[in-house]
Amino acid sequence: MLRKALATVNWLPHYLAREARRSLSGDKSVRPREVYFCICDHFEPYWNNADRTTARKRIARWLDCYPRIADRYRDCAGNVLKYSFFYPEEEYQAEDLDALAGLCHAGYGEVEIHLHHDNDSAENLRRTLLDYKKRLHERHGLLSIDKNSGDIVYGFIHGNWALCNSRPDGRWCGVNEEIRILLETGCYADFTMPSAPCTTQTRKVNSLYYALDRPGRPRSHDSGIDLAVGRSGQGLLMVQGPLCFNWQQRKFGVLPRLENSGLLPNLPPSRDRVRRWVETGVSVAHAPERVFVKLYTHGTQEQVMRMLFDAGGLACLLEEAAGFGAELGAEIYFVSAREMVERIVETARQRGDAGSEGQ
User: Fold this and answer.
1) How far apart are CA 26 and CA 134, in angstroms?
2) Is beta strand 208-211 parallel, antiparallel or unpaired with respect to 225-226?
3) Is it true that domain 2-348 has CATH number 1.10.3480?
4) Are strands 331-334 and 34-42 parallel, antiparallel or unpaired?
5) CA–CA distance, 336 with 178 (Å, rounded to integer)
6) For the chain, which has fewer Cβ within 10 Å, the N-terminal or C-terminal residue?
7) Rounded to whole angstroms, how far apart are CA atoms 155 and 125?
8) Neighbours of 78 (CB within 10 A)
9) Alpha-carbon distances of 8 from 56, 202, 226, 351, rounded to whole Å
10) DSSP at 165
C-alpha cells in the first residue's frame, strides 16, 4: 500500500524543484504574451463496450453540437478551435471515420492516433501503427505529411496512460521499445501526460522535452532534455499538460486537490482553472512569455458530453480563456495538437542562448 501511494507522487520532487527554479529565475513572474490552448480528446465512441448504434449516436452528437459552439468563439487570429480527436485504432470502423473526417475537413478538428494494447510485441506495434496511419490518410484524408520527408506523421496518446510499458504490473502495453517505435513510425509528438494520480505518471512534469529510448527498459519518457530557445533536440517530443495543486479546494479541508488538466464531469472548466493552467507555465525554456496549455478529456462518455454541451462546459472554457487573456493583456490562440507542436518547435528555433532545465 505504501509503495503504491509513493508511486502516485513520484513527480513531486521534480515539481517542487521546477517551481523553485521558476521563482529564482524570475520566470514565474513573467506575464504571458501568448497562450495556446489545445484539447486532446481520448475519443472512444465504443467506450464501455458500446454497440454500433450507441457509438454512432455519440459521434452524431459531436457532429451536431461541436460546430455550433466552436463558431461562437474565435481566438485572437479569428480562428475556431480545431479539436484534436485521438481515435483508437482498435475501435476503427471506416464509416465512423468517414463521418468524423467530414467534420475535420470542414475546419473543426483533426484526427490523431490513440491506441490501447496489452501484452504486445515491438514488431506487432510497428505494424499496427504503420497500417493505421496509412488507413487514416489514404482512406479518409486525415493526418499530415512531413514537408521534408514526405512521410505521413501523427500525434499519439497511449490508452490507459501506459506509455512505454510504464505500469508497475506491465499491463496495457508490453513494449519497452515504444518510444523508439513511435519515432520510427512517424510520431511527431506524444500527448499522453499527465496521468496523475495514476502510477504511470512520469517524474518529469509541466515540461516540453525530448525523450530517448533506453534499450530494454520501460518508462523511457520518465526523463528527458527540455526544449530551449536556440537548441535543437533528438528523441520523441513530449507535450505535457499542466499538473499542479489546487490549494483553494482541499480534501478533508486539509489536502490540496490535484489539478491534472482534465475536463471531467466533476471538474468542468472555470476561470480559476484557466488561471491555474496558465500560471503553471508550460513553455519552452527561455521563452516563458509563450505558454502552452494542453488539456484532455474523454469526449464520447455521456457524462462528459453533458458537461461539455448541455451544461455549457466547452463554451465556458473558450469564453473564460478569452476573458483571462484580455485580463492578462495576452493573445489567446485555439489550436490543434499539430498546430501546438508547430508553435513549440518554432519557439525553440528562435535565436537565443541555449540552456537546459535538466532532467
Assistant:
1) 46
2) antiparallel
3) no
4) parallel
5) 24
6) N
7) 15
8) 6
9) 36, 10, 23, 38
10) G
Contact partners, residue 57, CB within 8 Å, separation at least 6: none
In the three-class reduction of DSSP (H, G, I as helix; E, B as strand; rest coil), residue 171 is classed as coil
**Cell of residue 74, nine digits:** 474565435
Q: Map grid coordinates 486537490 to a residue.
A: 257
Dihedrals phi, psi of 17, to nearest 5 degrees: -65, -40
Query: How far apart, in whole angstroms, are the C-alpha atoms of residue 75 and residue 92?
Result: 32
Q: What's the chain's length in residues?
A: 359
The reported pTM is 0.95
| β-bridge partners, 156 | 113, 190
Query: What residues pair up with 228 in beta bridges, in sequence order?
Result: 231, 285
* Integer angstrom CA distances of residue 109 from 82, 124, 261: 4, 29, 20
Amino acid identity of residue 330, one-letter, is: A
> Residue ranges of the domains in the chain?
2-348
Q: Do residues 27 and 281 touch, judged by C-beta distance below 8 A?
A: yes
Alpha carbon distance 71, 195 (integer Å): 31
- For residue 35 the three cell numbers come to 497562450
**CA 308 vs CA 4, 164, 304, 317: distances in Å:** 33, 31, 6, 9
Bridge partners (DSSP) of residue 209 are 226, 238
Tens of each residue's pLDDT in the chain, 359 residues: 445 445 578 999 999 999 999 999 999 999 999 999 999 999 999 999 999 999 999 999 999 999 999 999 999 999 999 999 999 999 999 999 999 999 999 999 999 999 999 999 999 999 999 999 999 999 999 999 999 999 999 999 999 999 999 999 999 999 999 999 999 999 999 999 999 999 999 999 999 999 999 999 999 999 999 999 998 789 999 999 999 998 877 666 667 889 999 999 999 999 999 999 999 999 999 999 999 999 999 999 999 999 999 999 999 999 999 999 999 999 999 999 999 999 999 999 985 443 344 44
Give CA angle at 107 (101, 113), nearest 5°. Answer: 45
